[in-house]
Amino acid sequence: MHHKASPEIFKRAKELRTKLTPSESILWERLRAKRLNNLHFRSQHPISKYILDFYCHQYQLGIELDGEVHDNFDQKERDKARQEDLNALGILVLRFKNQFVIQETEEVLRLILLEIEKIKKSISK
């Protein structure tokens, strides 16, 4: 479930859980305690050398919320490499802009559920 995440990554994840960004707080309020269709999500979940903003182990679905820093070229390259690493571990990652989460929370939740339905269909094949 953690793909050999180091103790340092676990420590950092614990710290991040106490300092959620406004968009993370908004989404976490809707995901926590199985509030979204009884799905279990974790916040600031360590996987390998990364920390996913949110993670649903049942469907191996990660959710990342991106601020403006993710618009810069170098960060885009790092995000792409991270995405490839996580995909290689069998984890699908959805990315949403912070502003989109804040302004269109219901749409974000709908898109998450839509992706989970696609995953369910691929599993049942």
Automatic annotation (TrEMBL):
This is DUF559 domain-containing protein. It holds the Pfam family DUF559. Residues 11-116 form the DUF559 domain. InterPro entries: DUF559, Endonuclease_DUF559_bact, Restrct_endonuc-II-like. CDD domains: Endonuclease_DUF559. It comes from Algoriphagus pacificus.
